[in-house]
Amino acid sequence: MKKLISIFIALLLLFTVAGCEKKSDVIEIGIIQIIEHAALDAAREGFIDALKDNGYEEGKNIKIDYQNAQGDTNNLSTISDRFVSNKVDMVLAIATPSAQAIAGKTTTIPILATAVTDFVTAKLVESDEKPGGNVSGTSDMNPIEEQLDLMVQLVPDVQTVGVIYNSSEDNSVLQARIVKEIVEGRGLKYVEVTVSNTNEVQQAVQSIVDKCDALYLPTDNTIASAMPTVYSVTVEAKVPTICGEANMVVNGGLATLGINYYNLGYQTGLMAIDVLKNGKQPKDMPIQKPREFDFTINGAVAAEIGLEIPEELQKYVINENNE
């Protein structure tokens, strides 16, 4: 009997060791995302595709634990605790609140963030050139001045520019400040209204459309997730909207010269390859900027608000009806 017990214990230890060895061969990556909307989803897809194209595929040599906070900062904290407790090998943080949440929980797990407008303002790194900690990634800072040029090209008689954003999102506050400086520097009027959640968006848009000739919508997660609401109000009021990125245009905005978030996520994935394959550490990896911007103009929205697209921009027109 003792001999049988000894054999059983030996086999149990063998299977346990084998299991541990198998687990060590699999890299676990936690993905934390503040909210679900097209731009952030595209960034996540780009990241995963970059890993796959470079030999890291879920079910083979990596395990991805994707968690969405559904816009709730308390959920971000819980998800971050989960990743730290599970000792994941790397974290992809999508959007500024996600990056701030996980960065506040660990100084050892490598964190790559994307869809973060300004890493320094968000207190995630010491500088873009030398992050200095366990966080690096890709910025989604817009070409704001060029976007406002596009606004003037589409709406030559614009006198007052309105902006709507979530005042608790650091990236949105930064973009609104830049817009204000540029708008007022051009001798135009600037008005703004802020929200704290998606439930406030409709009232906010209704309160500003009568005060402006055009709206600028930054890459704000709350506004992006509520674009159908923005669309319904602005189309009825015949107010054109220049958006921070293309998916907001697809979902009811008028136009943008914006970031391709899939490409931005893919760019972040290539940074992850440098960590996984080449042993680089986030502290030594400069923040990367978007490599290209694309025009996107919603022809259906233009028709609904009675706006004529200049001939030189016609090639960028898509026809998406949000109804």
List the helices and strands and how they pair.
Elements: H1 2-24, E1 27-33, H2 38-53, E2 62-68, H3 73-86, E3 90-94, H4 96-103, E4 111-116, E5 135-139, H5 144-154, E6 160-166, H6 170-185, E7 189-195, H7 201-208, E8 214-217, H8 221-225, H9 227-237, E9 241-243, H10 246-250, E10 255-259, H11 261-278, E11 293-298, H12 299-305, E12 317-318
Parallel strand pairs: 1-2, 1-3, 3-4, 4-5, 6-7, 6-8, 8-9, 11-12
Antiparallel strand pairs: 10-11
Helix pairs in contact: 2-11, 3-4, 7-9
In a nutshell, what does this entry contain?
The protein is an alpha/beta fold and 323 residues long. The chain is built from twelve helices and twelve strands.
Account of the protein in words:
The chain is an alpha/beta fold and 323 residues long. The chain folds into two domains: 144 residues, Rossmann fold (3-Layer(aba) Sandwich), CATH 3.40.50.2300; 141 residues, 3-Layer(aba) Sandwich (Rossmann fold). It has twelve helices and twelve strands. Helix 4 links the parallel strand 3 and strand 4. Helix 2 packs parallel to helix 11, helix 3 crosses helix 4 and helix 7 packs parallel to helix 9. About 6% of the residues have low confidence.
